Amino acid sequence: MKHRLGTIAVFLLLVASGASARDHLRVNQLGYLSEDPKVARLLAYDDHAGRPFCVVRASDGATVLRGTVGPSSGEWGAFGYCHTLDFTRLRRSGWYRVVVGGTRSPSFAIAEPPYASIARTLLGFFAVQRCGETDPAGHRPCHLHDGRRIDGESDGVADLTGGWHDAGDYTKFLTSTACATHLLLLAEEIRPGLAGDHDGNGRSDLLDEARVGADWCLRLRHAPGGYTRQVQDSRDHRVGWRLPENDPLADDRPVFDGVGRNHLGRLAAALASAARAFAPSEPAWAESCRAAAEAAYAAADFAPPIFEGESYRDTAWLDKMALGAIELYRTTGKPSYLDDARRYADQAGPGGWFGWSNVNGLANALIAPDHRPSLGNLEKDLIAFRRQSENHPWGMAGKETWGTTVIVAGAAIEALLFERLTGRTDYTTMAFAQRDFLFGANPWGVCFVGGLGAIHPRDFHHQVAYLVDRGALSGAVAEGPAPPAVFEAQQIRLADEDEYAEFQSERGVYHDDRNDYVTNEPTLTANATAVLLMALLDARTPGVPAPAATANASRP
Ligand SMILES: [Zn+2]
User: Fold this and answer.
1) Cα 367 to averaged position of ligand 1 atoms, centre (Å)
2) At 39, which helix (H) or strand (E)?
3) What order of strands is seen across the sheet that includes strand 24-26?
4) How far is the CA of 161 from the centre of ligand 1 (A)?
5) From the CA of 170, how far away is ligand 1's center (Å)?
6) What are phi and psi of 254, to 5 degrees?
7) Computed over its alpha carbons, how large is the radius of gyration of the chain?
8) Of 399, 179, 379, the residue nearest 271 (C-alpha)
9) What pLDDT, in 10s, does the model give residues 83-133?
């Protein structure tokens, strides 16, 4: 009884001081720049609107700013209130915490731009994904016989070793490899040298990594007009977790041929972009990328609009062809490609969301300097994103889905590309809200990048991570929250007790659990999307030099 009375006394004390110990404060754990909009978010059982909050120095608890809690933006699961706490006025560098009554946020920094070091960490994930004799990290070279057509539709052997494993498994896909390659190259173009040159080979590490993807893209053409879209299938998921060099299926990895314009457009975009990027360091290889990009684009004339495989099923193709056409124009300067890009972009229209299966926004941003209607398409996306962000209790510029972190980062990417094109900052605050969501200002209080921030995923759905480091994987981006129905449909049994059970809601659930491939599996697409976002954020910070002009390349 004494214990219970004590608990009640503590509870009453906390209520009197403003916030319950059961409330939670969320911040961007990777920090803010001095001039950024800065918002913390309070997950609360009671209405705190109008109550005071303060920001204190992490070192000695001294109050450096006082503010007032904003109105609730809605409820979340068991919590009736989600409040924003604006401390934009605080600009001085240092380490801080936000405090409301008895509730404290994790400590965070206001500091120099952290984006280059985040990008470098993100890039580390790709080294773990490397397949074949590509100097992989965390495991030995693997799948050294890829290319045997065991179940394929045509005879023969092509060397399909190399490239990257798609995610936590060991399949390889044209779609995700070309998508990631293109996004990495775009990041390098926007912010050259972002991730440094730590191996000292005279070329940026980001380009070195993109070359692994581009090299595999080159291998996908095995005959004139004949392309491979996939190596290995769902049998990969049936033999248990193993390191890739110990894969009992090493000699049972079927190659799947057959592609549509949905594949060829994005393949052309990745290879055309590689042709520009590698022209200075490897002109002959860059030239082979250019030729392969043009061949892939030409092959689309004889391909079905959409070829559905068993994975990465597209529902649209005009956006991919628009992307291929504009990247070929930027590489070759041939006017016919620009004509095509305009025509495809007009037909494709705005995207409505951003992801491997929807590159409208990206294509429109690249075409916009040469085609005014594409800027209009891009802004239509942004108006919708901003409205969604304003109506979401956590500022998300889209609905929770399978792959939420890509959706969130993609909305920010489109906003920052628009800002570069127009100088207008109408959508930039929305972009910062997405950045903050990714880095910890979300209901779970998780920075969705492995190894970064105070609280991050430690139990990824990833075989190498699990077998080498019990699920930890620095630089890997989790898929993030998904609607409960999407998670439940997979009938996943969590491996461990759900440490985030308190924060699950009817809108989204997230589990840091190795069995959850819906919310906690890292993918090539999510990581490459995050790298591009870091490039755009870094490029807009003061003191970062503008990229050198590239021949024929209109500005991205
Ligand atoms: Zn492999």
Assistant:
1) 36
2) strand 39-44
3) 24-26, 39-44, 81-86
4) 8
5) 6
6) -65, 150
7) 24
8) 179
9) 999 999 999 999 999 999 999 999 999 998 899 999 999 999 999 999 999
Measured in Å, residue 522 CA sits from the centre of ligand 1 at 16
Q: Give distance in angstroms: CA of 307 to centre of ligand 1.
A: 25
Determine the Cα–Cα distance for residues 80 and 393; give it in Å rounded to an integer. Answer: 11
Q: How far is CA 316 from CA 321, 340, 347, 356, 398, in A?
A: 10, 17, 11, 11, 19
C-alpha of residue 140 to centroid of ligand 1, in Å = 9
Q: Are 324 and 366 in contact (CB under 8 A)?
A: no
Residues 51/81, Cβ–Cβ less than 8 Å: no
Taking only the tens place, the pLDDT of each residue in 492-521 is 999 999 999 999 999 999 999 999 999 999
Cα–Cα distance measured from residue 457 to residue 445, given in angstroms and rounded to the nearest whole number: 11
Cα 483 to averaged position of ligand 1 atoms, centre (Å): 32
Tokens of 252: 């049972």
CA of 172 to the centre of ligand 1 (A): 8
Beta-carbon contacts of 29 under 8 Å, excluding residues fewer than 6 positions away, are 106, 108, 439, 440, 447, 452, 453, 454, 455
How many whole angstroms from 188 Cα to the centroid of ligand 1? 26
Q: How far is CA 440 from CA 83, 394, 481, in A?
A: 15, 11, 12
- Supply the DSSP string of 250-292, one letter for each residue: TT---EEE---HHHHHHHHHHHHHHHHHTTTT-HHHHHHHHHH
Q: Each residue of 235-285: pLDDT tens digit? A: 999 999 999 999 999 989 999 999 999 999 999 999 999 999 999 999 999
**Span from the CA of 135 to the centroid of ligand 1 (angstroms):** 11
Flag whether pLDDT at 532 surpasses 50.
yes
pLDDT for 77 beyond 90: yes
Phi, psi at residue 125, to the nearest 5°? Answer: -60, -40
Dist. CA 486–CA 501, nearest whole Å: 17
